[in-house]
Amino acid sequence: MGAEESERVRPATDAGANVSAADILATDVFAADSEVGRDLAVVDWAATPLGPPAEWQQSLQTAVSILLSSRFPMWMAWGPELTFFCNAAYRRDTLGRKYPWALGRSASEVWAEIWDDIGPRIDTVLTTGESTWDEALLLFVERSGYPEESYHTFSYSPLRDDAGQLVGMLCVVSEDTERVIGERRMGTLRDLGSDLSVVRTEQEILAFASGQLARNPRDLPFTLTYLFQDDGRALLAGSTGIPDGHPIAPLTLSSDGPAAVWPAAAVARGESTVVALAAPSLADQPTGGWTEPPTEALVVPLLQQGRAPYGFLVAGLNRYRPLDDGYQGFIELAAGHIATGIASARSYQAQQRRAEDLAELDRAKTTFFSNISHEFRTPLTLIMGPLEELRGQLATSDARVREELEVIHRNGLRLGKLVNTLLDFSRIEAGRMQASYEPVDLALFTAELASVFRSAIEKAGLVFTVDCPPLEEPVYLDRDMWEKVVLNLLSNALKFTFSGSITVTLRAEDGGALVTVMDTGIGVPVGEMPRLFERFHRIENTRSRYNEGSGIGLALVQELVGLHGGTIAAESSEGVGTSFAIRLPFGTAHLPPDSLTSAPESPTASSAAVPYVQEALRWLPAGHSTAAVEETASSASANASAGEPGPAAPPYVLIADDNADMREYLTRILKGADYRVSSVNDGQDALRAIRAHPPDLVVSDVMMPRLDGLSLVAALRTDPRTASVPVLLLSARAGQEASIEGLQAGADDYLVKPFAAAELLARVRANVELARLRTHHARWRTALVDSLQEAFFVCDERGAVIEINTAFTDILGFGPEDLPYAPIHPWWPNAETDPDAHRRTADAFAGLLDQSHGSYTIPVTHRDGHRLWISATFNPAQDPESGRRVIVGTFRDVTAEHHAIQRDSALATLSTCLSQATNVSDALSGTLSELKGLWRARGVLAAVFGRGDAPFVTATGAPTLWHELPPEQRQTLTDLRERPLLTPTADPTGAGILIEHPDGPLALWIDLGSSRPFTSEDQLLLSLLAGHLAQGLVRVHQIDQQRETALALQRAILGPAQLPQGFAVRYEPATRPLEVGGDWYDTVALPDGRIGIVVGDCVGRGLEAATVMGQLRSACRALLLQDASPARVLTALDRFAAGVPGAMCTTVFCGVLDPGSGRLTYSSAGHPPGILAHADGTTLLLEEGRSTPLAIQPDFQRPEAHCTMPARATLLLYTDGLVERRRRPLSAGIDQASEAVHQGRDCALDELATQVMSHLAPAGGYDDDVALLLYRHPGPLDMTFPAQSQQLAPVRSALRSWLAQCELPPQTAHNILVAAGEACANAIEHGHRHTPGDTVRLRAEAFVDNLHLTIADTGQWKTPIAAVNTHRGRGLALMRAMMQQVTVTPGPAGTIVDMHLRIV
Amino acid sequence: MTTPLTLTPGHRADGTSLLTVAGEIDMSNTSALAAALDSTRDRLILDLTAVDYLDSAGLSVLFAHAHRMELIAPPLLTSVLAISGIAELTTVHEAPPSDAGTPQH
Fold it and tell me: Domain STAS: where (chain B) (predicted)?
């Protein structure tokens, strides 16, 4: 418009009344851009070689107008002096403060500082006519008042004049500074974080960090790492780019020195500080990756969670970059990495120390054990010494005294032997067995030792053969040790051999000596052979001369032989005999040299042999040993008649009588006849005594208080365990009836007082012998049951326990004296204090009565109150005598196993919980509910005493704040905080512990509700779990931080998005830890005004994928700028991707959009189809132009497709994370995405992006990362113009074209035009009246069914007063009539008019 | 610059004054329109057929002369004229829709 000059009416107020034709031409040359054009117009062109614009050649005019109309940064140089022109984009991005000074000047003057770099390139263009291409070239530009490090990707193209001569060049440039520096910093951070998995010492961590920091001397010209010491000083712990001890790198810094080089005190408070480096010393300072030294340094703390910083990092600053948020953030992240490294190194160190403490504890335990053994030896000596004295003095006193002295003596020897053996063990275990090996004539010494046993063996009726011919060379032995070996083997042989022989032989064999000890004893069962040498292992229930033994003899023998470099082996067959073979090497090569002595002593058996022989003699049958004669004489006959081996104890008689004289009389008579006797006062006591220890005979009075003799007999006979105990009744009542009454009640015999002693003895003896014969079977059964290692019990039909064995009493503490035990049994857990345990036991008991057989593991309570776990099995049986159904069961104590299993499974559950947590708070709340389940607690509460004012509370119930907790709970948690770490505390209401949380100390309280025991096992488990939790939290916290770092980088690479109008983008990382991926989006403003659109998805996850993504993104940008054909871009990207590891199979959608016409050209490399949602509700999938992902088919010509976006259509591009779900076809996800776009038809685009992301998010969050790009056609119109009425026409013209793009009916478009015009006119009036020179902003945005206009000014809205200003009032009326909704919002900063119109 | 506006004074065959306006009328050029209207007396036919845009500032000028003029207006302006109320004060003739003055942008 406006080309017709005829009859143009100029208002008088307009300034430019007399303008020359040349000016008009010049104005037109520069008209494409009002701002830069205006500044170009005022240049004194006549003073330049180009002359006034009116005389410019057509080619120059064309070049200038192309330049000015492009939205892409460009500059050009023309003519002999290369006169400089540039456009608005170049001014904004690159020229900075040189504008408008630079316009019209020589390019070499404008870019003097980089002329050395670019001059030769321009020369090349001007001489050859060929274009240049430079990618990310480092240039120091002075556009902000200082030389600035910058990177530009640019191309110089030749420009020709009308005659075709090369006269200038055009530069299309894009600045890469942010990207290049961002990638450089990312590289440093990635490398710093690359090796934290291997925990090393603090020194190594610092050396590693220094190595990484030194690799980036541009961002970090020098660095210093200082660590605070306990005394407040800071020591230099690492440096890069600067020698230690340099004036600004002192080795030590005191925190409060005023003249300190670095502000240690401030940084100790956690503050970052910029320090200016003093100018005079600059000359000596390091320059890093530059030629000039830094002028400033940044000092940042090495932060420690919840405490004062570890130290600080001083980073010399790149003088060519401003210290902006990105730069400071980079240095702080680097410091964060160093701090994390120090934290893990120190934590590792602390763990090392803990391990050493444990080892020390173990050593202390061994020392204690051997000390205690020593302690035993002193009193033993003091017993044995005086005892020897007494034996000598009392040798002639009566037999009883001598006998008892012998008992003491024998047992003293035995105890001494045990203590010595234990001591040997503790020495061997601690490696402190002081051996002294000397050359010994093994034959002589062994024969000597063997002879000590000869008498005992022969007394046992065995043949003893010692066959030890002299050897040709001596064997190196520790005499004491060898003595123990031989004596143990011989006493072992004697113990288990009842007939035949014992043989000791010695032979030379294979460079060593072979000693065998062979017997013809009972042998060892095959199943027991593997455990023969195991410590404390005894072969149970075998026939032996004596049932005692510690089970350590053979274990000690093996250890001792091992110390001699020898081996011991055993062969045995049951019933035939056993043979032990010891092999000892000759020479000394196998022995430690410092334990050798040369002086041989005379081989004599030491006194150590005495206890062995003494003990062996005690096993032998009576009569064979003088020492045992008196003790066993009276029972010899009984033993013989029973014909059984084993202990020959005298018969045991229980006397029940209420008369003390009678008790004494009976006791004296029976003891005189060598019976063992005890007595009780009445039948009740008798019953208890009999149940505890069934006697061979009960002698009972008939008349007794509480329970008389007849009732006692009746009670005994009804109890299966005592039914067979013989009873002799004594009564003052003579006569047949009394006797019959007694016998009918079940008594075995009846004696009437007074009676003669001989008669009593005869009756007693007869009854005992008769009973022994009769009860042989029952006694055998009792012996068998008692010998069981497992607890044994019999229940009657009601569940009352009526019989138990010794192991039962050992495990539970309840003995036979209180039988029967009726349910509820006293060992059941208390129903009130521990209802859960009680219920478990009750359930198991119910099963025992109802089921035929079964097994249970249940909690029970020992008689002394402590908690046990037993594993019980039971079977029904029938009592052969009464025919009653009984239940027979056995159980084992599995307390230790139970706790071990409980610990293992709790730890495993906790580990799983921690490994699945994605952040610290998840980990904590997951753990709390595990703990709650484990202890079946009412609730679990955790408070972190972090930096905030109030502790942060996590609870298993509803979310709670600190001040909402009851005061006593707050007190409990606060008290916990004062306790040492990982040390549990418990009271009747619960248990608590303090652990380290990344944010500060964490107090954890388990609320057990009612008073329930929290045992020491529970405490151990709690401290284990808490330790595990603390470690888990640190690990999760680190992952959290690393993920944030990675994410920050990802966003840094994606941004800063100067998105063209009409676009909205999103990037959402996957939710699982660290899973930042390689998805990206990009928009590229092309020189011709079109917009390149890219959405891509690299294979893989994490920083590697992000790095590949960064490279592909840059390459794709550069390619689009060179050639705006999506197919050719992707074809070229194929070749590029083939050379980038990890880039293969990346999928990319690449399109070029003309925002004016809506025409979209696109090509897809295996990427999911774009979604085009039309205003009418239909959807078009952009499925054409498809081919394989990148680098699969290099040199393949990719296809390209076109479509035109109609008005108010919305384009959605995305990566597969948005739509791909397991077990669902991709098309379902695409349909869902289309629907989400249609649903948001009335949303602004940015809000639509948010809606689509949330609408498609799976329940647990995205498990793949997602990039998303939205464009709605046409993009919004956004104009800012001066508040001058002359602006109205161009604004209207722009709005009119935009409305045409919206494809509205002409009348609707006109109405909008009028409404907007009125609002603009109003705004201009305000601007004129109040603050001239202000601007007005017009924004118009099309939704699918709506149109939204905003006109904002900086003035005061004028309330229309009809009388004064009629036409303004009309303006508002017009706006209200034309639009559906008009809102005027006056404010202090200006007035905003909002208008909406529904346009369907 | 001022919004382009062409004012062509003339007379109808019957001698009535005719002012033919082409272009856009807004606050930046109403003074020119007002001056042109002020230079005529008696009845006047104002031909707005070639006017693409008329805002309230322009309407205010028209109101001052409404009593002595008739308007020829294109369909696009009908609503503005109706809403402002000037259609009630003066006669508005609709310009033929095929007129060359229909805006082409």
Answer: 14-62
Residues of B whose CB is below 8 A from A7: 6-8
Mutation for testing the B interface, residue in A1314, A1365, A1382 having most B CBs under 10 Å: A1314
> Are the CB atoms for A518 and A500 separated by under 8 Å?
no
- How would you classify the pairing of strands B69-73 and B92-94? parallel
Burial of A576 (0-12, 13-18, 19+ CB in 10 A): middle
Q: How many CB atoms lie within 10 A of CB A95?
A: 24
Pairing mode of beta strands A652-656, A676-680: parallel
Question: CB distance B31–A11 less than 8 Å?
Answer: yes
* CA dist list (Å): A1375 to A50, A110, A743, A1310, A1322: 50, 50, 129, 12, 11
Cβ(A94)–Cβ(A173) below 8 Å:
yes
Q: What burial letters (b/e) apply to A902-923, b meaning 16+ CB within 10 Å?
A: eeeebeebbeebbeebbebeeb
pLDDT in the model for residue A400: 79
Calpha distance A458→A1248 (Å, rounded) = 106
A967 phi and psi, to 5 degrees? -55, -35
Q: Are A394 and A405 in contact (CB under 8 A)?
A: yes
Residues of B with CB under 8 A from a CB of A: 1-8, 23-24, 26-29, 31-32, 36, 53-57, 59-60, 63, 75-76, 79-80, 83-84, 105
Look at residue A568 and tell me whether its pLDDT is greater than 50: yes
Walk across the sheet containing A463-467 and list its strands.
A463-467, A501-509, A512-519, A577-585, A567-573
A469, A443 Cβ separation under 8 angstroms: yes
Checking if the pLDDT of A670 tops 50, the result is yes
Judge: A7–B6 Cβ closer than 8 Å, yes or no.
yes
Quick one: three-class SS letters along A46-96? HHCCCCCHHHCCHHHHHHHHHHHHCCCCEEEEECCCCEEEECHHHHHHHHH
Q: Output the furthest CA–CA distance in chain B (Å, rounded).
A: 37
Query: How far A1328 CA sits from the closest chain B CA (Å)?
Result: 13
Nearest-CA residue of chain B relative to A1318? B55
Measure in Å the smallest separation between the Cα of B44 and chain A Cα atoms.
Answer: 20
* Cis amide linkage into residue A73, ω under 30° from 0: no
Most confident of A245-249, A660-664, A1205-1209: A1205-1209
As a whole number of angstroms, the distance between CA A1012 and CA A1006 comes to: 12
Best mean pLDDT range from A10-19, A717-726, B63-72: B63-72
User: Does pTM surpass 0.80?
Assistant: no
User: For chain A, how are helix, strand and coil distributed in percent, rounded to 5?
Assistant: 45, 25, 35
pLDDT at A710: 85
Strongest mean pLDDT among A251-260, A267-276, A581-590, A1104-1113: A581-590
| ipTM for the complex shown | 0.89
CATH class of B5-94: alpha beta
Distance from CA of A1355 to the nearest CA of B (A): 18
State the DSSP H helix or E strand holding residue A490, giving kind and residue range, or none if neither: helix A479-496
State the pLDDT at residue A639. 34
In angstroms, the CA A1269 to CA A1065 distance is: 4
- Give the distance from residue B58's alpha carbon to the nearest chain A alpha carbon, in angstroms: 8
Look at residue A369 and tell me whether its pLDDT is greater than 70. no
Structure tokens at A24: 């008009």
Cβ atoms A631, A647 nearer than 8 A: no
Could you give the domains of chain A? Answer: 21-175 (3.30.450.20), 192-357 (3.30.450.40), 438-584 (3.30.565.10), 649-784 (3.40.50.2300), 794-893 (3.30.450.20), 900-1043 (3.30.450.40), 1055-1272 (3.60.40.10), 1277-1398 (3.30.565.10)
Yes or no, beta carbons of B4 and A1307 under 8 Å apart: no
